[in-house]
Every structure is written in structure tokens, then in C-alpha cells.
TrEMBL record:
Protein name, UniProt field: Elongation factor-like 1
CDD domains for the chain: aeEF2_snRNP_like_IV, eEF2_snRNP_like_C, EF2, EF2_II, EF2_snRNP_III
Organism superkingdom: Eukaryota
Gene3D superfamilies xref list: 3.30.230.10, 3.30.70.240, Elongation Factor G (Translational Gtpase), domain 3, P-loop containing nucleotide triphosphate hydrolases, Translation factors, Yeast translation eEF2 (G' domain)
Species of origin: Brassica carinata
Amino acid sequence: MDESGGRNIRNICILAHVDHGKTTLADHLIASSGGGVLNHRLAGKVRYMDYLDEEQRRAITMKSSSISLRYKDYSLNLIDSPGHMDFCSEVSTAARLSDGALVLVDAVEGVHIQTHAVLRQAWIEKLTPCLVLNKIDRLICELRLSPMEAYTRLIRIVHEVNGIVSAYKSEKYLSDVDSILASPSGEITDESLELLEDDEEVTFQPQKGNVVFVCALDGWGFGVSEFANFYASRLGAKADALQKSLWGPRYYLPKTKMIVGKKGAGSKTKPMFVQFVLEPLWQVYEAALDPGGDKAVLEKVIKSFNLSIPLRELQNKDPKNFLQSLMSRWLPLSDAVLSMAVKHLPDPIAAQSYRIPRLVPERKIISGSDVDSSVLAEAELVRKSIEACDSSRDSPCVVFVSKMFAMPMKMIPQGGDHRERMNGLNDEDSKSESDECFLAFARIFSGVLRAGQRVFVISSLYDPLKGESSQKCIQEAELHSIYLMMGQGLTPVNEVKAGNVVAIRGLGPYISKSATLSSTRNCWPLASMEFQVSPTLRVAIEPSDPADMSALMKGLRLLNRADPFVEITVSARGEHVLAAAGEVHLERCIKDLKDRFARVNIEVSSPLVSYRETIEGDGSNLLESLRSLSLNASDYVEKRTPNGRCVIRVHVMKLPHSLTKLLDENTDLLGDIIGGKGSHSIKILESQSPSLEENADPIEELKNQLVEAGVSSSCETENDRKKCKAEWAKLLKRIWALGPREKGPNILFAPDGKRICEDGSILVRGSPHVSQRLGFTEDSTEIPSDSALYSEALTLESSIVSGFQRLGFTEDSTEIPSDSALYSEALTLESSIVSGFQLATASGPLCDEPMWGLAFTIESHLAEDSETEKQPENFGIFTGQVMTAVKDACRAAVLQTNPRIVEAMYFCELNTAPEYLGPMYAVLSRRRARVLKEEMQEGSSLFTVHAYVPVSESFGFADELRKGTSGGATALMVLSHWEMLEEDPFFVPKTEEEIEEFGDGASVLPNTARKLINAVRRRKGLHVEEKVVQHATKQRTLARKV
């Protein structure tokens, strides 16, 4: 592919809400430009891209699939993607391989929740979108709107979609302004002002040509340009000028033959789009469908546009079939959509030049560590090749695999020159695939990919500058075959150049989910894909026959490779847990496991719901909470190790919700920073939403957010805000660890080092390790000046000297105990304290679920060993005793401070007719849902209801809703947030009012929180306080026998 060939390629994905017509649209595009694989009469009926049995049965798309089309001199790779929220991972894989997107919106239903999600995904991946308004015929036939009412509805939908994109642009713009104002200079220069100019041009404009109006089912569609070209000669105007006037407040005056704005038009004058576009369409539909319609209108259309309609279709007695034949020849759908795609969507060469910050984030050397300059130069050369979409044979070959998908072996082409290569598969590949062949869904970003070529398979953790230490992240593999995808068919090719989407065979044993392929070792991996949701629905699975366990294990490995979003784990109890995005996704995974991969009978448990544990309060009054953390406060929990040498005191407080959410959303970044990746010699400058300053430091940005999140929502007056900010800044310098797993939403603060132990014991101070990583403190600033005195007086090793520095002693030599081994032992206990904190936050006291949004301060006072020195085996290893004591103290502190359960919530969008509102609300109330708003859709009788539904109550919700409303209501759910359940799980009536309402303590039924806790404890095999036998007396009859 030379440059001209690259300019003639388009990689397009179709994105939309479920049932908005993506696959039907793809059918018509395939029928017209697919090389004869689909007859135009079957388009819209067979759903060619939905070739799985489950997709045909459910009538929804469940996976992204590609097909190559030819339109004029252009080659188009069209990727159809699912619209159901359960399969949003497939949308991410399709968006990564594309350069442009066709965003479909139903003209009747309008913008829905998944429309927001796909627009955000297109924005994240820097795709150029075009808007397709589908199902225009429903405005005529079902809603029976007038042309003016239909125009009002269409313009509202276009404005709403533009508003969504404008929100993303505004978010980027404001972040760019903040980054410039936070720069060292703080001044906006001419250069930055030029970059800061806000693009006020609306994204989707019909007069610009990137919006088309279609009816995918009947195969017709048009853009404004089609009607502009038709009316240009009749009105004596230029087509370009007329195209700009056919949308918006532009009016045509027949008497003066002038196009005027709103001020020059009369009250009864209609917009030009209504007068010249919609009214002719309405007239054709009325003439064809109404028994008494004017047939002369139809004859006029056929004659005016020289339409060649077969006589058989002209004489068809079904008016719908005749109308479809007429409209599809008058306004062909494929011409309208593909001409817009070719004109307004970018080619790979143009697209990769501005997508490069997202695909391969820039790397910069920020420290003087040893870096091989030749490796860095070659890696930069590869990056420039990707940016230029270099397709020359001597350029490095870089390919991104977005997912692996399984196809039956019988569907793989076996003939031609590829037979020998396929028969030469290694034993491992053929053994692992068995009856299923795994293919890589990939896009070539640079160079030429050839069948039989050896490439390096690079994982997302690979760093070419680390050399030997990152060799486990790179493998070498041979590509056995390359195919161009044709939906369910494959066309073998010998080589493919940059800019194309292909399927690759031979990578099954090397890739699990996604990876980067490169012809050179010195290549940075392409950025990982971002998913809109996470797999939250978990079930435990086991074979019905224990002898089939090996087959199940093999099937799970194949399923994990075939599905980009599923997660397979082994729980602490030894169960195999399968995590999916939702019920539909889970059902498909179980079916694939039974029928394709494992082929054994499987037992599936009830869903395993994740919870979190916290304490009462919202954390808004941060100033009072900070005071409660002071060491002089009395509300602490004290535990002592079994040998009596160490006393543990724990304080706990609730973190503000904004701070907890920030820590929870940035767990991956915090893990990299705390693990040492943030201070590496190479800094990854990555921004998923494009920012003006590409050199913005993510660590510095997170640091500023941590400062603001702790203060923003807590103080009312400016004076309190200043005090709170000062106290919070001091506390941020004492962050010892995060938990669980060293990167969770819980904080461990090091105790205040100024405290002097009165009983001769030593306070284990810990080190602000996380604060140092985040840049809140410097190592040198935290070292007291008396460290030299200790080192001279006691000649300790450097590690023990640092222990003195952290133990907070004064210069008075009488405070220095004579046994220096005690200080060394205090240092060794620091890791035990952190480990105990991690154990406690990973399993809370209520039901062994992770803690959420808590801050701990742990004081450990270590005394000298006396009597227990001779018998250490009586109590076990001392570090283990400390770890256990810290864990128990943290859990006891939570129990003492009114614990609460936190549950995950779904955001639910429901659509229903007015007569089903009552049954729908009955279903919502049984599911503990909280309704947010209810509104009627403009221009229709449907109601849209937004609500929050707990994840634990969502299983079977869709089926119950369909049964309760006789199929009249539909619902779509997406994971929203974590929410604390206000009910006290240990509630016991105490006041007279409570006893009167709930009865005495013996007769109070468990509340919702207690039921959830007991269910989790019962599933985990923990003790549950409940009466197994309610009435132990012998059954007797009350009848009196005479």
C-alpha cells in the first residue's frame, strides 16, 4: 500500500444503543458493497454480522465483527459492535481498531444511556464521529407526526448529541486551562492561548454533511447534499449555498425567490428542511400507504428521477413492499452513508497522526539513570513510524491485537497455499485449540505483516529500557496465517500493509486478552484499552461430575482467552469464580462453556455479590474527624500481644466521600506510584482525554486532587477551611500505607513522632512511605537533627540510625535506652504493622468484605523483653503476634464505631407506556430501588424513569419486569457507584418509641443490612447468629377430645 492506497482506506465502527439498528444498517452496506455475499432483498432480515446462534435467538449483537467492503475506489473495513451494556468491552475493542465511527440514534427513542457510553468511548479513542438518525419512517407511520413536528424532534436529537460531545470538549478545555495556570510561570502566553482556543464549532451539522437521515429497515437514507443537488437547478442556486440553508432557521420565499433568516420570514413560513425535504417524503408515504392516496405523486417521483423499478414490484399488492422498492432506488441507503464516511471520516495516515498520544504515550527521561541511547532511539523511530502509518517494507511492523476470538475449525479456510502452513502448527497450538481455532482481531499500525513472519508478542507491562528484567513480558511467535475478515467468512492473504484490519492465526498460546506485536524488541507497547464498566456479576462454577474437573479447567482457560471481558479467579475457599458484566453476558459465557469449550454439565451457584464495610457518618466534618485522630483522644481500641511486650492502640475515622472515590478510581495509578513505577527513569506521559499540556505529570495532578478532596466538602466558613486545610496538609505527610492490596481506598497514618513514652517503651513510628512517593514529603526533611548524636554515641548501623530518627527522641541522653537491639527490633515490626493493616482492610469484621473509606492511626508501644526471652515458643513468632494484634485491633475499632455495610448500585434506565407505570413501580419497590426522576419522552407517549437499583437485587430484575408489565417495559442497567446502607445491622430497640414501633429486642426481625451480612457470612462458612429451631416444643393438637 503506497500513500495513495493508504488514503483510500477507511476503518469504521458502528456504535449505538441496543436495538437502534446497527446490524440492519450493516446488512444494507454489505448488500451493496460486499462483493455479492448478501442479496439486497435479504438485507435487514438475515442480520449477516450476527452469525452466532445465540445472537440470532436473542436478536442482539454480542460481539464485534469486521467485514471488508469496496465503495468506488475506496476500501472500507466495517466493524459492527454490540449495543447492550453487558458487551461494552466489545465496543472498546472495535473503537481501538477504527479511525471513525458511525453513531446511530433512533429518531423515536432518542438518546439513551448507551449512546452516552459509545460517544465517550469514541472521544477517549480520538475517533471522528458521524451521526446517523435511524428509523425516520416510524415518525410517519407510528407516531404520525407532521413534517414540522418531525423536524422539531430531529433538531432536538441533534442538539442533544452535540451537547454530549460539547461536555467532553468543555471538560478537556477546563483541564487545559487549569494545567496552564498551575504551570510554574502561571501566565498564558500567545502560544498557549492559540492552543487554548475553544473549538466552538458544533460537531454534528447536517449542512456540513456529517449527519444523514435513514430508514435502515427499508434501505433508504439521505443527507442534505442529495436534496441540495436536486433543487439547485430548479431554484437557480448553487448547490453549496443551498446545502447550508437546508438545515436550521432558513426560509424560502417563493415570491422573491430569496432565502431569509427567521426575522424576514412570516409566521406561517416553514423552514426549508421541512418544505423541501420532509414534506415530499411525507407525501410519498401517504400516497403509497393510504388507500385513497394520490398515486400521481409516486409516478412523478419515478419519472423525475428516472427510477428503474421492475414491473413485478410496481404491481405488488403490498403497499409496503412497493414503497420499499421505490424509496431504496430513489434514496439508496448505502450511497448516503458510505459517501459521508468516505468524505468526512479520516484515512489511517491522517488519523494516526493525531491519535498517536492515545496509542503510544510519549516517554521522557526525567532522571540521570543509565539508559541505552540506541534502544531509546529505535523505540522513538518505531513511534514515528506509527504516527506516519508508514507502510514501506523496511519500516518496523507494529500490530495491536484488541481481542482473541474463537471460531470452529470447520470455518477456517483449509485450501490453497496455506494448507502446509496450517498443517505445520505446533503441537501446543493444536492441542489447546482442539475443535476451536483462536484468531487475533488486529489492526496494523505500521509496516507490512506477512504470513509466516516471526514477531515479538509484547504485553502492556513491557519496558524495552529494563532489558533482562522485563523479558517475561515479551515472547517470540510465528504467524501461521493472515485473513481479511468477511463477517463469518475469512479470506486468506499472504501480506497486508499498514492501515488494515485483519485476523491472525497462530497466536493462541501467546496472547490471553490483548497485546502488541512488533518486528523489533525495542518497541513500546500500545496503550491499554479503557472499558466503561467492570465485571461485577460473579458466580462459582463446578462440574456436575467431579471427574470432569480437568475438562472444566481446560474450558475455563479457553473461555478466558476467547472473551475479552470475562475474569476467571479462584477464591480463598477454592471455588472457581467466573466474573461477567451482567446477566446476559453471564448466560452467554455459561452456554459457551457447556457447548463449546468444556462440553460438560456445570453447576452454577447463585450470584456472589461484593460488598464493602465502613463506619457511620459521611465524613463531611473533616475537622472534627482530624481532632479525633489526635493521640490524646480517648476513643481508641487497645490490644496487647500474647507475650505482653507490645501494646497496640488504634484510632479510626471516616474519610470524605470525594476522597474515597478519588482513591478508588485511581487504584492502578497509585499501585504504580507506590510500587516504584512512578519514580522510574522513564515517565509515561499519558492522558486518555487529550490535554493541552502533554507533559502534565499524573502524579502531580493526583497530589493536587488529594489535597482538594480532603477539604472541598468539609468546611463552611473560610476560617474553618484554612484550619482544615492546614491540618489535612500535615496529615498528608504521614501517609504510611494504603489498603487493601497497598492501593485501596483506606489510609494508614503514621503516629505522631513527638510523643515521648513515659513507661520506657518505644513508639514504633513507621515511615511516611506513600507520602514520599506522592511527593508530600522529602526523605531528608523528615530526619531530626539529633541523628548524628545517636550515631556517635552508640555507633549503630545506618538502618538503626534511621530508626532513631523515626522514634522521636530528644537530645537528652537519659532517654536513650542502653539496649540498642530494641531499636532494631522496633524497625522490624514496621512491616508487621503494615501487614496487619492490609489483612484488616481486606476482610472487615461484619462479613470479611474489604473496608471502604476509613483512615487508621496505629500506635505500637514496644517494651523490653524480660521473662519471655527464654520461652519464645510459648506464643509463636513475635512479628506474627504483632500482625494479628494489629488486625484484631483495627477490626475491633470498626465494630466500636457503628459499622455499616456498603453495597454497589446500578443506574437503571427504564422505558414504559403509561398504563404499565404502576406495575413497573411495584417491581422497583420490591427491589429496594430509589427512583431519581420520571419524565415523558417528547413527541411520544412513553415514559423514561431513572432509578438506582442495588446490585444484590438486580438478578432476575429484567425477567420480573417483563412479567409484571407484560413485556411493556424495558430496562438497561450500568454500574454506578458504592452507597452506604444507613441501617444499623446491630439495631436493638432502646427508647420507648422504638420499643413501641419494633417491639422488644427478642421479637425484632433482622433488618436489610443484617440479612445481607448473614447471607454473605453463610456463603463464606462464617458463624451466623440465628435460631435454627424456632419452636422446640412437641407438636400437639389444640382440639379438645371428649
